Amino acid sequence: RALFDLRSEQVQGLEQRLALLLAREAPRIHALRAWVSVHLPLSRTRLDACKTANAIKTALRADVEAMRHDKASRLRETEASWKSERHHLWEVSTGAGRSSE
After folding, report:
1. Is the pLDDT of residue 94 over 90?
2. Contacts for 88 with CB less than 8 Å, ≥ 6 apart
3. Band of the pLDDT at 100, cuts 50, 70, 90?
4. pLDDT at residue 88 above 70?
5. In angstroms, rounded to a whole number, what is the distance separating the alpha carbons of residues 31 and 87?
6. Cα 36 from Cα 30, distance rounded (Å)
7. Distance between CA atoms of 69 and 81, rounded to whole angstroms?
8. How far apart are CA 59 and CA 74, in angstroms?
9. Phi then psi dihedrals of residue 58, to 5 deg
10. Which of 10, 77, 63 is nearest to 85 (CA)?
11. In the predicted model, is pLDDT for residue 101 greater than 70?
């Protein structure tokens, strides 16, 4: 019985401390909830704007990379064409030099 009474007193003491803490912290919790309810939509709006901006940047980077790839491809084709033309002209000039001898 003495142990039961001791435990009951301890539980009552804990309940009283909890009630005091809740009474002291309740205004903070309400203020925090109010702040969150105001700022959550703003934060979501800002997040959506950031996601949209990021998607635009990603698309732009992909376009730039595609243009670089296309440019490099055209440059390789042009270089191959110039080498072929130069080789052809070299053959023509070598042939003309031999025929003039």
Report:
1. no
2. none
3. low
4. yes
5. 82
6. 10
7. 18
8. 22
9. -65, -45
10. 77
11. no
How confident is the model over 25-75, as pLDDT tens digits? Answer: 888 889 999 999 999 999 999 999 999 999 999 999 999 999 999 999 999
Quote the CA–CA distance of 32 and 34 in Å, as a whole number. Answer: 5
Please give the average per-residue pLDDT across 15-24, as a whole number.
Answer: 90
Which two three-digit tokens encode residue 7?
């435990």
Count CA atoms within 13 Å of residue 45 on its CB side. 5
CA dihedral (62, 64, 70, 74) in degrees, to 10, reads: -170
Rounded Cα distance, 69 and 46, in Å: 34
Q: What kind and span of H or E run contains 84?
A: helix 2-100
> What pLDDT is attached to residue 1?
79
What does the block give as tokens for 98?
Answer: 């031999």
| Cα three-residue angle 92-94-96, rounded to 5 degrees | 65
Taking the C-alpha atoms of residue 59 and residue 23, their distance in angstroms, rounded to an integer, is 53
